[in-house]
User: Fold these one by one.
Assistant:
Number 1:
Amino acid sequence: MEPRSSGLQRLVREVAKFGAVGGAGVLVNLGVFNLVRHVSTLPVVRASIIATVVAIAFNYVGFRYWTYRDRDKHGRTKELTLFLFFSAIGLVIENGVLYLATYGLGWDSPLQSNVFKFIGIAVATLFRFWSYRTWVFRALPAQEAESILVAEARKPSNEPEPKSQRVP
């Protein structure tokens, strides 16, 4: 029964970290969206696409170097390609909801745009969580992942890097 609870604990930690990075990404996304809408005359969906692209870049850094830092780091080109592919699908989902609300239903006030942008982000997040953990940030075997985390935990974070000595 112990391995099951350990697996559940890992999943809960993963969801919490994904949520923390994703939550910060939502703030970046909505902030850039409202900034672009305020300072430009771009149509609402174009402003949203710009904001989504900025948030995707922000999220990749957070996911790779914090949420999924214990995952397989081999094949970064493949990882980034898959991340961008699934992020593009998420972008279509997210902005499709906003497009439908804006142009299909005529709901274009700033409040309505933010509400539907947020709903689009929520729907796309479910897809992104599944696709990132399944295809992009592939899990290492449990023993290897644990050894990486233990090694990182043992590394003193406040010690300066050793300086190389020069021989004259």
Number 2:
Amino acid sequence: MDRRDLLRATTAAGGASLAAGLLAAAPATAAPTAAPRRRPSAKKPLRVHVVLFDGVEELDFAAPYEVFSAASHHSDRGVEVRYVSATGATSVRAAYGSRVRIEHAWAPRQADVLVVPGGGYARRESPGVWPEIDRGTLPQALAAAARTGLTISSVCTGAMLLSAAGLTQGRPCTTHHRARADLEKQGGVLKNARVVDDGDLVTAGGITSGLELALWLVRRELGADAATGLEAMLEYESRGTVWTSSPA
């Protein structure tokens, strides 16, 4: 049994109670208090599609991918996580040179959650968000994907791709601190929070906030026990404020 399997095995039973103790000791702003928006069906797995493109930031997509993948060990409801590309690419080269293989087609109607990472926003000529906006394929695909039952989310400057798709216009949202002014100029209603949950649109701040985004969505979709169990397994406590439009 490798280290990760051992960790999963030892924390699956006791993780929820351990993490609950850890969260009780944390500052009030660090632990989200809002109730999940809806009760998911126990029969159908939560389907998460993580969107990739050349120049995507490694931590932006890897952190949510791991959190959602591990969530299946802490919930009776299954979780299916896959990488997808709106351009039909079979692999991408990420910001720091990692090559990631994409084995699934773009199919947002088969997803419950889309996660859009960022990357390369400070380097307009380099692969990343700017070339994707200029090309238009991904923003158009995101705009067409929006539908009832689908939550579209972003990490860091992935919010600028959602903005290019017209999805943040007049909506509460956030992004990396260096892109906040641009997001506001384009019609986003900025909130000073680590994660901003406006129902079917959920955005997160800087690079590491992908952890908070995924943990919050796990809490919302799979329940608090799943989220606290994950925190114990990952040895990570959610930090920062979650702004939500739903009543607490």
Number 3:
Amino acid sequence: MSQDPYPGERPSTGGSENQSGGPSDGGAYGSRPYQPTQPYQQPYQPGGYEAGDYPTGAYQSGGYQAGPYRSYQPSYASMEGEKAAQLSLILGIVGLFVAGIILGPLAIWQALKAERLGVPATAGKVLGWITTILYALAVLAGIIFFVILVVGLGATSTYSS
């Protein structure tokens, strides 16, 4: 394959060339910069393209063509639902650490409100239930501990008298 595929575009080097027709230095084609064989024929026109250049039905003039994706404008109900879902999640997380007996049911209530408005709030609802159950168990354990303490103190007072 010793034939040059683009014979008119390569400037001559005037120097020694190897057998394949390329330069012997292995790199540059010569000291002259690349000269295009055909200069650009049409000058720039500020008015744009002529009517025959492109199909007229492909684009609308004066703006973008509406594609398959429409812009989404959330409604008031969906925005309120998203706020309720976020509040439910926040209440569920904070309720795990502080005042869960109050914040857990509030998280469940906000999650149900979000779901009524069409926004899923599963994480907030689950955290609300977990918080509520954990704090209910903690309150129950506290009550049982107090009852055992009172019964134990009552039993020791009967032995000493």
Number 4:
Amino acid sequence: MEDQTQQEQASPEVQKRIQASFDRQGLMAHLGARITHIAPGRVHIVLPVRPEVTQQHGYFHAGATSAIADSAGGYAAYTLFPENTEVLTVEYKINLLTPATGDHIEAIGTVLKSGRTLTVCQLEVFGVQGEGERKLVANGQQTLIRVNRPEQ
């Protein structure tokens, strides 16, 4: 079943809306993160290893790990929101399970419950080395709020 979920894609309109919003995020651009998968209620964000996103021991910094997890969950929720709305994080908790290492880390945000106002997401971050060595390095949970888009 996981393979089917991995291949499911959001509609082209939703993908365009999510990518356009992501492209406006200064922090994600600064970190060098990119969205790699957009499905209904699920978004993957990848962050390649570079000295600028590591801490003093060479591991991915917890701040970088947390930032992409937060964005992955936020955009997973946003895939299920109406077009005239926006998403904001209300709170999130993340557990750093082991030092994050690899060629890149991949955050996966998955909607657990999408409500009229609040949405709850599961956050997972994997350290990825080479072509498939994946290790869960962080997990968490997030609450997001749907807000109306301000009039331009």
